[in-house]
Design brief:
There is one protein chain. With 356 residues, the protein is α/β, with parallel strands linked by helices. It folds into two domains: 231 residues, Alpha-Beta Barrel (TIM Barrel), CATH 3.20.20.370; 87 residues, Immunoglobulins (Immunoglobulin-like). 26% of the residues lie in helices and 26% in strands. It has nine helices and 21 strands. Strands 2, 5, 6, 7, 8, 11 and 12 form a seven-stranded mixed sheet that branches. α1 packs parallel to α3. The two termini are 21 Å apart.
Length: 356
Amino acid sequence: MSLPKTLAAGAFLCGSALALAQDYLPILQYHHVDANTPRATSVAPDEFREHMDYLKSAGFQVVDLPQALTAIKAGEPLPEKAVAITFDDAYRNIYENGFPVLKEHGFPFTVFINTGPIEKGHSSFLTWAQMQEMEQSGGVFANHTVSHPYMLRLKDGETHEQWRARMAHEVNAVEQLLNDKLGHSPKMLAYPYGESNAEIREQLAEQGMIAFGQQSGVVDQHSDFTNLPRFPAAGHYANLSSLKVKLNAKPMPLLSFEDQGEFASHQPVSMTLNFQGGNYRLKDLACYVAGQGKAKLEWLEANQVKVQAEQAFPVGRGRINCTMPDQSGRHYYWFSNVWIHASADQAYVTEKIKKN
C-alpha cells in the first residue's frame, strides 16, 4: 500500500468583513466547443453559452486562474462564488465558438496547449496570433506538453532514464515556446489524460510548476498543487443541472487518504479517507465507483472510512467519487481519486520497471 497522502490541516482565517469570501475554487474543464467533434470531449456552442450565461446570471465570479491559485496558496480569500474556466488541447473551435462568448461576458480563462500541432500549423489548432489576441481579453496559455503523450507509458525499448528525459522535453519545450512566443508562462501544466505519478509530480514541484489532473473536486489551500482537480463540463457532464451541483461544491475535509498507488489490478481497488475533526454529516457520505454504482463503506474509526469497490476496473482509467452534504444542505463536499488499469501490452512506468 502506498504511503498516506497527507493534506495539511488548519482553519482558514479571515476578518469578519470577509466572512462571505471563499477559500476554495471549483475549476471547470472543457476541450472542444463544437457540435461536430467527439461528444465525450465536446460541448456544443449553445451549451457553452448556456453555461456562461448561467455563471453570469447566478452571480458567479469568474477569476483569473494563476492569480486565484496564488491567493489560495497564500491563504488569501477569493470572491464569493469564485470559479475558473479552463480548456485543454488548444483546439481552434475554442477561438471560433468559445472565445466570443467569454469576451462578451468579460470572463478570464486558461487554455492548456500542446504545441506539436500548433508548430506544424495544423488547421484544427490555435495559432500564436490567435493566442496573442485572446490574451488581450483575459486568456492565459499554459502547458499541455508537446505531443500529448500518455506520460507514464514507456516507448518500445525505452529505459527509465530515457523516459525521464523525454518527459522533461515534453514539458520544457512548451515552457520555452510560451516564453518565446507570448513573452511569459504561468508555469502551469495539465497532464494529458490526467495521468501522472509521484516522480513526475516531484520534478514539476522542483521547477515551481502547478499541475492539474482529471479527477473531479475543488481546490483549496491544502490541495496537492502538483495534481489539482477540475470538474469536466463536456459530454455527458455538460448537463446544466448537474454542473450547478459541482459549481457549489466544497473540498472534502480530509486530513489524508491512502489509495494503494496509481495503478489498479485485477483486484477491486479501495482507499481510506481520514477526516478532519469537526461537525460533518459523515453518516451521509456516499462514494460511487465508475461503472459500478455505490462503493462499500467500512468505518474503521469515527473519522476514518475504507471505501471499497465491488469489482475490478476494466483496462483504462477508473475512479471513485465521494460526496457529502454540508450542514446547510446547499453544498456538497467533493473528493475524487483515479487509478490506471494497464493492459498487458502497455508498458507503464512502475516501481518494478524503475528498479530494473
